[in-house]
Amino acid sequence: MHLHLHHITKPIEHVSTDSGLAGADDDDVAAGFAQLVENTHPSQSDGDLMQGIHAAAHSHLPSLHKFVPQLQNLATKYHVGNYVIDRKTGEKFFESMPIYARLGMHLLFCGKQQVKLLEGSKRVDSLLREQSIREGRIYDSPESVKNIPSFIRTYKISLDELLDPDIKHYANFNEFFYRKLKPDARPVENADDPAAFCSAADSRLVVYPTIDLALKFWVKGDEFSVPALLNLEPSDPSCLQFEGGSLAIFRLAPSDYHRFHSPVDATVSGNPIDVPGQYYTVNPQAINEANLDVFSRNKRSILFLQHTLSGKQVAFVAIGALLVGSITWTVEENVTVRRGGELGYFAYGGSTVIAIFPPNVITFDEDLVEHSAPLSDNTKKIRPMETLVQVGYSLGRWNGA
Prior knowledge:
Blueprint: E1 2-4, H1 26-39, H2 42-45, H3 62-65, H4 70-77, E2 81-86, E3 92-96, H5 99-109, E4 114-117, E5 120-123, H6 124-140, H7 148-155, H8 173-177, E6 196-198, E7 203-208, H9 211-217, H10 226-230, H11 237-240, E8 246-252, E9 259-261, E10 266-275, H12 284-287, H13 294-297, E11 300-307, E12 313-319, E13 327-329, E14 336-337, E15 342-346, E16 351-357, E17 362-364, H14 366-372, E18 386-389, E19 394-398
Parallel strand pairs: 2-18
Antiparallel strand pairs: 1-3, 2-3, 4-5, 6-19, 7-8, 7-18, 8-16, 9-15, 10-11, 10-14, 11-12, 12-16, 13-15, 17-19
């Protein structure tokens, strides 16, 4: 759900121990989260997505509020979500956080290590993993086709741009979720310029000319580093090549087209490297949490691309998240890909792609840098803001070094 700035009449909640869910029992929050996942099954909601995980944090769901009545107080006191700027229109808007992400963040940042459900005691990370796998199974089931019409209505998805617009041709919800688009649906800007780079996903994007700037403005996790993200030793040559490099972070919301694409003209170097991990939310408030590095903790898969023009490697990291079922690559080793060419897709859920560039490879577009790391004007603190982009939008240029 999007709100225009003049509709923002309440403060924006910062998730903490004394925020809008203060006093909520952790076990009740865990039970409520599990109930939300169960509600997504067509047999429970008759296909209505707004009765489950897709509901906004201010929604009133009787099946959930019996577990977490504090949600009513949360909705009264706060807006829950993040500011985003639409690159195409320049419009700034507020994007409400889905209710599942808010409950998942409470369990991560405010909850105990153990939560008790009917079947016994579970660690929070085990609970989130279990429910993420459960969600994937629900959306892989043939019955989940009943969820597709509600999904289209809720997110106003245009069927005109789909390669197959007939929803009867999809065997389950997940097939529709990672739907393909028509070949001309995402044109690549500056396609004839070999020095250009493009957006890798329909997403909310932040970019940083240096990784140090990313740590200052966006990724606050104390554990975050390139070696941690790539699951390699700091002395590994694959890590050393990125020292002083640049970072682009593409966050996909559940409503987005969920195939990801190459930001560069390149050759695929080797096979993907899968790294097991957790299923934590990748919402910006979680990324900005100083005591937890979500990116380096979550399940992810890493592909290296050799940039055609510079000959240097670009690391492309697909990161799973809360309720994301799987990461699938659709390219193979030694294949040449053009900018905007498909690399793979996510099954259900919000998720993130991070592109890491070696130093002196990319100069990001000025507007993206300005939104991601704004300067203060001495009268007010200007927060970094994600930029809403689509696959193929200009990302920057090779600086020729």
